[in-house]
Design a protein that fits this description.
By secondary structure, the protein is mainly α. The chain has helices at residues 3-40, 46-93, 97-122, 127-142, 155-176, 186-210, 214-219. It has two domains: 3-93; 97-219.
């Protein structure tokens, strides 16, 4: 559980407790008000009037305290409720730590994959070494098939991320069946580079939705 998740839970719990307090003081105010009304209309003998006034004064003080407490708890309930809504909205529009790690990793994996394909097609390195590199990248990309966007994200955000993860998984699985065929085969390399370009469209959509700074990734 992230720090933000813990804060969100704490704020929600506080909002609920303050709401209960608000209801309690509202009910208390209504009960005291009813008692005051009943006592105010009661007819008593002169010797009991002093005792009645004292009781009324006590109830009026208690009523004022109830009103003050009600207002305070109401304001606190509104504040914490607003805070919980803001945190929920913030979470829905920003990547969780896990999704952020997956997106950054996927970004570099895809570009390493493209680089290894070009080396294979142009025969720039030892064939066995390139095959091993491509096999590793294919397996890592295919592992995105087990990844799902956090459900704290908005539905639109989840859709953008899951499309991206699925596309990475698919190219990884497709590559795993062709690892021995890329060397000196620019036609096949070209096909997979085109697939990588299509993945970048999903990547771009996810980056734009979550306002990921690609320039910062390029600098690393």
């Amino acid at each position: 559980m992230s720090v933000l998740d813990s804060i969100f839970i704490g704020v929600v719990v506080a909002a609920i407790l303050f709401f209960i307090g608000t209801v309690y003081f509202l009910v208390q105010f209504a009960v005291i008000r009813r008692k005051i009304q009943k006592l105010s209309t009661r007819r008593v003998k002169n010797k009991k009037k002093k005792q009645l006034r004292k009781r009324l004064n006590q109830l009026k003080k208690k009523k004022r305290r109830s009103v003050t407490s009600f207002v305070v708890f109401l304001l606190l309930t509104m504040s914490f409720s607003g805070g919980s809504f803001y945190i929920s909205y913030y979470q829905s529009r920003n990547l969780t730590t896990e999704d952020s790690d997956l997106v950054v990793k996927g970004y570099y994996l895809l570009r390493d994959f493209e680089e290894q394909l070009l080396k294979a097609g142009n025969q720039e390195e030892d064939e066995i070494k390139i095959q091993q590199n491509i096999r590793y990248l294919a397996a890592t990309l295919a592992s995105y098939g087990t990844k799902k966007a956090s459900n704290v994200n908005s539905k639109e955000g989840q859709l953008a991320l899951n499309r991206y993860y699925t596309s990475l998984m698919q190219i990884g699985m497709n590559t795993s069946t062709q690892t021995k065929n890329f060397f000196a085969n620019m036609d096949l390399v070209g096909e997979f580079l085109n697939d990588a370009d299509r993945i970048k469209e999903y990547e771009k959509a996810a980056f734009e939705y979550y306002q990921v700074d690609e320039s910062a990734l390029l600098e690393e």
